[in-house]
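Expect chain and fold; see below:
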Amino acid sequence: MKMRIKGNSLRLRISRSEVTQLLKQDRLEDTIHFAPDAGAILIYALEQSPAVDAPTTRYSHNMVTVLIPADQARMWCTTDQVGIEKDIDLGRFGTLTLLIEKDFACLDRSDEENEDTFANPSAASIC
């Protein structure tokens, strides 16, 4: 799972095998270490949940969890739907733009570098 943060936007890109894992286990999780200190980490997760009715986020103790409704997750995982997007109202802090998308193969990378990605719909296009 790739995470990109820019301003008040959060984007997760999910590989082919991770989509399969999300369907089976309901949750994906990864950790980034920022320093040798054991507490200098950020854990980020994507979780399908029957308890939410719209995509949302939760933050607690160095962990960011993106929650999506279980039925929406199943639909996204089992169809050609590319992504799930939601603007989340943060009150006085504005809006968080959330985007969860399938990770497409990069057109300028090798097959090895594109392993475990989804076929890029632009691959057949001629520029």
User: Anything to note?
Assistant: The mean pLDDT is 87. The domain at 2-102 is CATH 3.30.1360 (Gyrase A; domain 2). Strands lie at 2-6, 9-14, 27-33, 41-49, 56-60, 63-69, 83-89, 95-102.
